[in-house]
Design a protein that fits this description.
The complex is a heterodimer of chains A (about 300) and B (about 475). With about 300 residues, chain A is α/β, with parallel strands linked by helices. In chain A, about 20% of the residues lie in helices and about 30% in strands. Chain A is built from eight helices and 14 strands. In chain A, the strands form three sheets. An eight-stranded mixed beta sheet of chain A has the order 9-8-7-10-11-14-12-13, sandwiched between helices. Chain A has a four-stranded antiparallel beta sheet with strand order 2-1-6-5, covered by helices on one side. In chain A, strands 3-4 form a two-stranded antiparallel ribbon. In chain A, helix 2 runs antiparallel to helix 4. The longest helix of chain A has 13 residues. Chain B is about 40% helix and about 20% strand. The chains are: A alpha/beta (about 300), B alpha/beta (about 475).
């Protein structure tokens, strides 16, 4: 296992994802002699996990079973221990593309938070890029370092415990991209500018409130950033369902020319006798949006630093 | 800093580069060449002067078709002093502008700088001083856009090319909006070192995006319909040659035989010949202009070809693609060369078949104009367990069908049908709001993860029950 390349089999020390059912999963650290409790019973690491292929079905003690999945930044985002609010994959996707991240990119990030975005950045810039991430909360910074080591990506990331607004990112003219997710990003724009390469680079700031965006945009303009663009992305998930709508009784049943307009065309001639009461149903498959959805995470403001 | 930096320095525009021209929100991909006339946004110019400058430099187009680098500093020149409070006394009599249409044309013909024309328009507007400060701002911005011919030359990237395609030629990429493409790359866990399978009819844009994210590490097998893969958009990225060494292609029409074990090289069509024919045909159809990238697409679909004919859409790119040049020289080449090329192709094809036969790909990305269900059901066979797959479709219904069929077949979990909405904002002091128009359609995605599909029969029903909503599902959705 590694967050930056796929392995076929599960080994000691791996972080694996236990998949129980529809979007119900959790991470597990694989250890000899280790045990994990699930609602289907216990999983014994030595016999049930180690040496098995990722993607296998594992039968638990009570006879129920789960799937064991290879970790990815996306699965980690859904399962990581929250120390802060985190960014989810919908925003992360747009950030990654609009910051033009790719293998070899040097990226600055602040704050590190729970490391949701950090893992996604590391995945994208590996094997030759580097992430400099700054977190002013000491405990969170330490926890992040620990996690990166555990996930075998420590060599691709440097965590600094300092205040980005006061002390910057600790590098100058090295970065291809800067990402800010802090309460007052406008105070860090100057530091972002000097962290970016001389010939330019991209910047993104994530803020939940429009007032923050306003101040950030002004600061970006003052520091000579161009192509300032604010976006918001929303995810709409559809549940696939078979839906059955009853056909209304318009009193036509006894007339003999009852014509169901359903897809099945079921109430035909022979059913005419009972049609008066039971007209039948029309069935179809549909993607049904959930009753509630996430309406706002944050505004994403992007800009370009060019030479001038 | 604008002199002539050493050729090795990165970010410098060089001859032979693939670049993108940008004017406001409009993009056009070009190949940088000397003494070549380029038409962009109703203006023509040569890129000769741009060579040696840094990417991101803004140029002013002079009447002679040359480019003058423009500093951003001078912009704050048009300061406004007087301004009205509201528009209660502003009447639209159509006479507020004292300059006539002919006057303006005369100014333009004299070769006067756009900035000065804008200044004259302001001075000759009787209502300008009564407009509110915001309205004055808007007026200047509008006039600048019209008269100040400035273009910026930027480096191609997935961000820029996918925005360009969605803005100018969405039909070519099946209306795949750039934020949807971004989701595909993330959910597909596209990264260096992967072995990816791609089936796309998006002019090679999706392929290019994947290549950018893989940075030349790992391998990609592109499945193609018809006579050969379309890579018009791929060539706009300007990838180094090394990126193409581990890029393979495999004809879709041979997938069945590969899966059933009856695949043999003998039955393969002579693809290179077909391609040559297509290239020659299109060469004849476009006058003296270098073959525009679109022509390579024409074989793809008559429906899309129809859109090509709109002159406006022709403007998007002006690149003689590598592929075309390649085909061109081949057409003229000797039979010996032809044979050699064909041998190479065959060799690469065998390699592609071998890679597929291992059935251990790290992911599958589908974005095409074909019905996704049969593609998905077959191509997933080549993917290893515990790997993500992503299917794009312009419409939701085919993905609902995919969902149902995959559930019946098994071997996949965590199926999710989704769509993203993208909203653009205007952010200005006291004038922040969502932009007036937003894109209403960017397509749909079906994502999932492969698993080992043991005991197909018994596994089926239990899987169904296991995947039914649990109490945790709602909780997770709420978190998201």
């Amino acid at each position: 296992m590694s967050f930056i390349d796929y392995r076929e089999t599960i080994k000691e020390g791996d972080t694996a994802i236990v998949f129980l059912g529809h979007e119900s999963m959790f991470p597990v650290k694989v250890q000899h002699g280790g045990k994990t409790q699930t609602k289907y019973g216990v999983i014994r690491h030595s016999t049930d996990l180690i040496g098995k292929r990722y993607g296998s079905k594992v039968t638990c003690s009570k006879g129920g079973w789960v799937y064991i999945l290879h970790p990815t930044p996306e699965l980690w985002t859904l399962n990581l221990p929250h120390r802060t609010q985190i960014l989810y994959s919908t925003d992360i996707s747009l950030i990654t593309m609009m910051l033009e991240l790719k293998p070899g990119s040097v990226v600055c990030e602040s704050g590190t938070g729970s490391g949701s975005l950090s893992h996604a950045i590391i995945r994208t810039i590996a094997p030759t890029g580097h992430l400099y991430t700054v977190e002013f909360h000491q405990q969170r910074a330490e926890k992040a370092i620990e996690e990166f080591e555990e996930h075998k990506v420590g060599h691709l990331v440097t965590v600094k415990n300092q205040d980005v607004c006061k002390n910057g990112f600790g590098i100058t003219h090295l970065a291809d991209a800067v990402f800010l997710d802090i309460p007052s990003p406008w105070e860090a724009i100057g530091h972002a500018k000097s962290a970016l390469k001389r010939e330019g680079g991209r910047i993104c700031s994530f803020s939940p409130c429009i007032e923050q965006v306003q101040r950030t945009c002004l600061a970006l303009e003052e520091h000579g950033f161009a192509e300032c663009n604010t976006l918001e992305i929303l995810l709409r998930v559809y549940n696939v369902r078979t839906i059955s709508l009853p056909l209304p009784d318009l009193g036509k049943g006894t007339g003999g020319n009852a014509r169901g307009e359903s897809d099945q065309g079921s109430p035909s001639d022979q059913g005419a006798s009972s049609a008066g009461l039971q007209q039948g149903n029309a069935q179809f498959k549909s993607g049904v949006p959930p009753r509630e959805m996430v309406g706002h995470t944050g505004y994403l403001t992007f800009a370009t630093k060019s030479l001038f | 800093m604008e002199g002539s930096p050493e050729p090795a320095s990165p970010g410098v525009i060089r001859e032979g580069d693939f670049a993108v021209l940008k004017r406001d929100e409009v993009f056009k991909a070009v190949a940088v060449a000397r003494r070549r006339k380029i038409v962009f946004e109703k203006q023509w110019f040569c890129l000769d002067n741009a060579i040696g400058h840094i990417y991101g430099t803004t140029f002013e187009v002079t009447s002679g078709g040359t480019l003058q680098p423009k500093n951003r500093v001078q912009e704050a020149a048009t300061e406004t002093k007087e301004a009205g409070a509201d528009n209660r006394n502003i009447v639209d009599d159509g006479k507020s502008q004292k300059l006539t249409h002919d006057d303006i044309k005369a100014l333009k013909d004299k070769g006067i700088k756009g900035q000065e024309i804008v200044q004259q328009l302001i001075e000759n507007s009787t209502t300008f001083r009564d407009k509110t400060e915001f309205a004055q701002h808007k007026y200047i911005k509008k006039k600048k856009k019209k008269y100040e011919a400035v273009i910026t030359i930027v480096k191609p990237s997935t961000r820029i090319l996918s925005t360009m395609y969605y803005g100018r030629e969405p039909g070519k990429i099946n209306y795949l909006r750039y934020d949807t493409l971004a989701q595909m790359l993330t959910w597909g866990n596209v990264r260096a070192g992967n072995k990816m399978i791609v089936m796309e009819t998006c002019a090679g844009l999706v392929l290019g995006a994947i290549m950018e994210r893989m940075g030349g590490y790992g391998s990609i097998i592109q499945m193609y319909p018809g006579g050969g893969p379309v890579r018009a958009a791929t060539s706009c990225f300007g990838f180094p040659g090394s990126f193409f060494q581990t890029l393979y292609d495999f004809p879709l029409s041979k997938v069945d035989s590969l899966l059933s074990g009856t695949f043999s090289l003998k039955k393969l069509p002579l693809e290179s010949e077909e391609n040559t024919a297509v290239a020659e045909e299109s060469n004849g159809s476009v006058d003296d202009k270098p073959v525009s990238v679109q022509e390579a697409d024409t074989e793809c679909s008559a429906e899309i070809a129809a859109e090509d004919r709109q002159p406006e859409e022709q403007e998007i790119m002006d690149i003689p693609t590598e592929g075309d040049a390649f085909e061109d020289s081949k057409a003229k080449g000797t039979t010996h060369d032809k044979l050699k090329k064909q041998e190479e192709r065959q060799k690469k094809l065998i390699e592609a078949a071998d890679l597929l036969k291992e059935k251990n790909a790290d992911g599958l990305i589908v974005a095409s104009r074909f019905h996704p269900a049969p593609l998905l059901l077959s191509l997933l066979e080549f993917v290893a367990p515990s790997r993500p797959f992503v299917v794009y479709c312009q419409y939701k219904e085919p993905l609902v069908e995919c969902y149902t069929k995959l559930r019946e077949k098994g071997g996949v979990i965590n199926l999710k049908l989704s769509e993203t909405w993208l909203r653009n904002y205007q952010v200005l002091p006291d004038r922040s709001h969502p932009k007036l128009m937003m894109s209403g359609a960017g397509g749909y995605l079906l994502t999932g993860i492969t698993v080992i599909n043991e005991s197909v029969k018994s596994g089926d029903c239990s899987e169904q029950t296991d995947e039914e909503p649990t109490s945790k599902k709602r909780k997770l959705q709420e978190q998201r």
